[in-house]
Specification:
Chain lengths: 569, 184
């Protein structure tokens, strides 16, 4: 349709928004209109052939969709919302993106600049409200400032440690006229997104690694963000070092590799947690020692020298003291490290992980994936789904037991295929994030694994799936409980199930009302076929699997316990 | 162990940035004892001086979080020995003090303070010094009836430091690292 003519004298601020997005290579936007952003939506009307807009059903859904989009594509997610309630509805998703280092550019409409501070209709101080949860934000009150603000927003969101940014644009700025000039932002005087790797530190790291008897690599989201998967693999193979992954790092290292020992954290694998307190050199790459990973910090890896590869200087020594800190991009740092690292063998040390894996298999895994219970269990569903999809699907999870089970039993063969809310643990993340992931990767199978609780937090996004025809697969593991909370009540609150039981609707019927096919499975004998039908469906599909009500996720590191006190049952 | 630290923070001129910086303290439940903000010797660059009592570990983390803000050029922290610092205070006492003129004048002089204004009802005294000196004068003047008292935040000059201009040259080179973000 419309082509912007470079020689055209003036455009409106609203059109400058759209043109800036196009110049920033944006192809997809998730949003919801309203009074204060109407000029932008009006300008969008002329560019619908160049910019795909997905109308969500709640602004929180837009942020999570943008997150899912970003996490599987590496591109920033873009969100539109109106002022007041539209803008405040973004906050949960922005906070989630901030703590999980996901680049988002959120554009909100704002009341006329002469009304700022007057408690005008739908005025909220979104710049103030979002300040603690954005990497950067700005309010724009003049049309000519829009393009530079958006250019800066994209630069900040995507550079260094990525994060969400918000640009709040007053209605008069959207209506105002300006000459449109977009200059890509490539540096900001006061901003140092990516420290230059210090070779001396790299040499010190190499020395520690070369002298280690029991080195151990923890890989995090930073490996994926940096695109350092190959370098990580080379390092692990050359020096024969076992690799464990954080929740957000899953997929950064091939799960079938003999050096891959599993998943870290509260419900992670046995050996990877336990042996953290037996290694002599701990090599943390692009991870930030979240408390779900460390358990009790005063009893965490005290015996080990710690080497920390990290892009964000404020993460170094924040939780765990680093004996050597290599600041900068992980890929660049590992490339410099590799030639300095000696080829080694650590057979005995690796053997320990194998032994732990055997114990975990006997005590936990065997019964979880092949249970003797009458009712289906979550782990067997995920295990079968893994086998069916051969670890190749993009799996988006919500938050709770099903999330931990998925992280344990789905083996991600590819990087950036695991989409989950880690740091914030946001229920309601799963469904909209899956929508965004499918938009970004239409040729891949995207499956949202949801709990019955979290599904209902953003269930309205079924409407987005229907309207924009997004063939997302939805696997609801229904235990008729807020399972994770119930587990804690059982273990730490004497089984006092205070408000965790759920009376649920007919999920399949709800899906059907949105024109989405669905099926409900309660029997083991029907599971395999049903999973296959869901997975192979060309359209969106909802499969509800009724699972045991009171299943617990193990192993577990209870609050206050150390990683070596991980319990198996 | 806790200690008093003075933070010097150099920033770009941006609406809301001070708020971003103070949120870092609030979020960690750290009380800001005093804060001042003004333009530095370089046009367009602002300097915040913030005083807190925290542990060494806490102050290091605070500075790390502050420097992470996009528009913060650089943040430093100093113990009292590393800085020359001053606060200013204004004291308003009843004009009755002049009834004991000799004592009053002696107090003002001994405290190296200055009479800023005298009117029939009140006298305003100005004093620059450190916290202790300002408190000392307060105690001395209190007997005349303290009508009003106001104290500025701390301003501080650090003893050893690069000049802001050399630092700016350095950062201009540093900030030009290329963007990298995975794109597959
Ligand atoms: C928005 C939000 N509210 C509350 C919680 C606390 N919470 C964590 S897990 C959980 C239960 C989730 O239940 P469900 O979605 O049914 O999944 P399940 O644990 O049963 O797999 C709750 C309530 C949260 N993480 N997010």
């Amino acid at each position: 349709m419309k082509k912007h003519n470079k020689y055209q004298t003036e455009v409106t601020g609203a059109e400058a928004v759209i043109l800036s997005l196009l110049d920033a290579q944006v192809t997809d936007v998730f949003g919801y209109p309203g009074g204060a952003i109407m000029p932008v939506y009006d300008a969008l009307y002329d560019y619908m052939d160049q910019l795909n807009h997905y109308l969500v059903r709640h602004e929180q859904g837009a942020t999570h969709a943008a997150q899912g989009y970003s996490r599987v594509s590496g591109k920033p997610g873009v969100v539109f919302a109106t002022s007041g309630p539209g803008a405040t509805n973004l906050i949960t998703g922005i906070a989630d993106a901030q703590i999980d280092s996901t680049p988002l550019v959120c554009i909100t409409g704002q009341v006329h600049s002469h009304l700022l501070g007057t408690d005008a209709f739908q005025e909220t101080d979104v710049v103030g409200i979002s300040m603690p949860v954005t990497k950067w934000n700005i309010q724009v009150t003049k049309a000519e400032d829009i393009a530079p603000a958006i250019a800066k927003a994209f630069y900040i969101a995507t550079s260094g440690r990525p994060g969400p940014v918000l640009v709040d644009i007053t209605k008069d700025a959207q209506f105002g006229k300006t000459k449109y000039v977009y200059e890509k932002c490539e540096s900001i005087r006061s901003y140092f997104p990516c420290p230059k790797v210090n070779e001396e530190e790299v040499s010190k790291a190499a020395e520690l690694i070369n002298n280690a008897q029991r080195p151990y690599i923890l890989c995090g989201h930073g490996v994926l963000l940096s695109g350092a998967e190959k370098q990580l693999l080379d390092l692990a193979e050359k020096a024969n070092i076992p690799v464990a992954s954080t929740l957000l790092g899953l997929g950064a290292f091939p799960p079938t590799h003999e050096l891959y020992v599993g998943y870290l954290g509260m419900h992670g694998n046995y050996g990877p947690n336990l042996l953290t307190n037996e290694c002599d050199v701990l090599i943390a790459i692009g991870m930030r020692f979240d408390d779900r990973v460390t358990g009790n910090v005063s009893k965490y890896a005290k015996q080990a020298k710690v080497v920390h590869f990290e892009i964000d200087p404020s993460e170094v020594n924040k939780i765990i003291h680093a004996d050597v800190a290599v600041l900068g991009d992980a890929k660049e740092a590992l490339e410099l490290l590799l030639p300095k690292v000696k080829a080694q063998k650590h057979a005995q040390w690796l053997q320990k992980f194998t032994e732990c894996a055997k114990v975990e298999f006997e005590k936990v895994v065997k019964n979880a994936v092949n249970p003797a219970t009458e009712k289906l269990r979550m782990a067997e569903v995920i295990h079968q789904f893994h086998q069916l999809s051969e670890g190749n699907a993009i799996v988006v999870t919500d938050v709770g037991q099903h999330q931990m089970i998925t992280s344990r039993y789905y083996k991600f063969n590819h990087p950036n295929h695991n989409v989950t809310s880690g740091g914030l643990g946001t229920m309601g993340f799963g469904l909209p994030a899956a929508v965004g992931a499918k938009v970004a990767q239409p040729n891949k199978e995207v499956v949202a694994v949801l709990g019955d609780g979290g599904f209902q937090m953003t269930i309205q996004e079924l409407g987005t799936i229907m309207q924009s025809d997004i063939p997302v697969k939805i696997l609801v593991l229904n235990n008729n409980f807020l399972g994770m909370v119930r587990q804690w009540q059982q273990l730490f609150f004497d089984r006092r199930y205070s408000f965790t039981e759920m009376k649920n609707p007919n999920f399949v019927a709800i899906a059907n009302c949105y024109n989405i096919k669905g099926k409900k499975v309660t029997e083991r004998k029907d599971l395999k076929e049903a999973l296959k039908e869901m997975y192979e469906s060309k359209e969106a599909y909802l499969l509800e699997v009724v699972v045991e009500n009171e299943e617990n996720v193990f192993p577990m590191i209870t609050t206050g316990a150390s990683v070596s006190e991980i319990i198996l049952e | 162990m806790e200690n008093t630290y003075t933070l010097s923070i150099f920033t770009e001129d941006k609406i809301g940035l001070l708020n971003r910086v103070t949120i870092i303290f609030t979020r960690r439940h750290i009380n800001i004892e005093s804060i001042t903000a003004s333009e530095s010797e370089v046009k367009g660059i602002y300097r915040y001086t913030i005083v807190v009592t925290v542990s060494q570990e806490q102050v290091e983390k605070l500075v790390g979080q502050i420097e992470k803000q996009v528009e913060v050029l650089k943040a430093f922290y100093h113990i009292n020995n590393d800085i020359l610092s001053r606060e200013m205070a204004l004291y308003k006492v009843s004009a009755d003090a002049l009834k004991e003129n000799e004592l009053f004048t002696r107090i003002v002089n001994e405290n190296h303070a200055k009479i800023l204004s005298i009117s029939p009802e009140f006298i305003v005294i100005e004093k620059t010094g450190d916290e202790r000196e300002i408190k000392h004068l307060f105690n001395d003047l209190e007997k005349f009836g303290m009508l009003e008292f106001v104290r500025s935040g701390r301003v501080a000059i650090t003893k050893p430091m690069k000049t802001l201009n050399t630092f700016l040259k350095e950062v201009e080179n540093n900030s030009k690292t290329t963007v990298k973000h995975f794109n597959k």
